[in-house]
Each structure stands twice: as C-alpha cells, then as structure tokens.
Amino acid sequence: AIGIHRGMRVLLMVKPGLDFISITFGLFKLGxxxxxxxxxxxxxxxxxCIESVKPEAxxxxxxxxxxxxxLGRRAFATVRHNVTVGRRMWFWGGHTIERIRExxxxxxxxxxxxxxxxxxxxxxxxxxGATGPPKGxxxxxxxxxxxxxxxxxxxxxxPGDIDLPGFxxxxxxxxxxxxxxxxxxxxxxxPGTVEPAKWIEAIRDHAVTYSxxxxxxxxxxxxxxREHKITLPTLRLVLMAGAPVPPWLFxxxxxxxxxP
Length: 260
Fold this sequence. Notes:
Helix 3 (62-70) links the parallel strand 3 (57-60) and strand 4. This protein is α/β, with parallel strands linked by helices. The protein has helices spanning 18-30, 43-53, 62-70, 97-105, 141-155, 170-177, 196-206, 215-228, 247-250, 253-256, and strands at 9-13, 33-36, 57-60, 81-84, 95-96, 121-126, 136-140, 162-165, 180-181, 210-212, 237-239. It is 38% helix and 16% strand.
C-alpha cells in the first residue's frame, strides 16, 4: 500500500525481536528483498555497504533514520520509502510500523503469498567484516528452501520444538520449520556478554528443545550450570558455530542434557 513491491531491496535496520521477525516475513510474503547489515561493523563500513546495495526502502528504528538524515545522505540517496519502527520525528517523514499495521487490518482477505522462483533473490546479508571488507551475500529462495529442508531432515526439527537462537536470523528458520522461537535477552553482536542465569531461565521457563549459540555462550552457560548443579533436561540439541569448539566443551553436554 505504501509502494514497496516485489523485487525491491529493503534495508531492514531493526533490533532483534518480534518486529524483526514479523517484518522480515512480511517482506518475504510480498517478494521484496530484505537487506541485512550488522551495524557493529563501524560507521564508514556501514555507509559504504548501504551505498553499494542501493536500497529503495528503509524500515528501521529511529536511530537509523536519524543517521539517514544527518550522516548518510549519499549512502541513502536511492531510498524512496521510509518506515519507522518506534517513534517517528517530524523531520524525516515516511510511515510508522503502527500505521502499516492499521493498513493491513483494512484488507478484507489475506494478502496472497508471492509465488517466487528458486533462483529469485530472497535477501542480501552482509558479512561482519571481521576478516576483511564486509561483503554482501545474495541468498536465493531456493537456497532458503534447501536449508530449511536440511535442518528438518538432519536434526528432526519441526512443530513442537522450541528454539533459543543466539543469532537472531536463526529464529526465521525455526518459524519456517513450524517450531517456536524464544528471543533471548542478548546482544547478538557481543555473545561474550551473555548472562548465563538469563539464558538458563529462558531454557527452563519455555522448555527449550534446541539452541544455537557461539562456543563463548556455551562456555559461560555450562560453567554456570556446573557451578550451581543445574541440568537442562528439555534440551536435546545444541548447535555451535563461529569459532572452534574445544573437545572439553563437547564433553560437558551429556551431564547437562537428557539427550547426550
């Protein structure tokens, strides 16, 4: 209704949470292309990435729009449609996510799901730039379908499972698998800041069955569990990536979980 359409690159600058998940799936349903960039890469890298991808729309928190209006006029030059997730200031215009939801309630029937092709671009996700200049990785719809099927077949994930993703994007896969996702109280760009008590509380309160996180997260969480004699009997699958996993960390899980 506001002009965002199939194939349009939409820069999504929203914090991990329910808004992030619902907006991303809304864009997928429309056939638009979410562009995801880690703001932790630094201002100059961030602006260079935005300029290179030439987004036509921006859906972001107030800080993202403030940067667009003050520091990033060149980088955001191609943006024609703006949506604020949060409080909108008068000087940057555009729409709010609340207004978009109001428009959605006025539809008298469900909006049709875009019939995308396997080779059609689904999203552009930029690397962090930790080992070199940040690079935009193009994901196709066929790639996402294949990944979802591999996760379902390899790990047996599906309806009834509950995920605690240490990387927010993984919540999208859980939703696509028919599982539930619990959004952790965590700065995903700094996994070492995890508070083990909160992580464990989320697992126990929601009966989490699987969880992805960096070895740093699980190092701190298993330390805490061993110190306080805590077990996590609902947890049947732990996935780790992003750094080498030492053998001693693997060895902790049989005593921690009921599904070694």
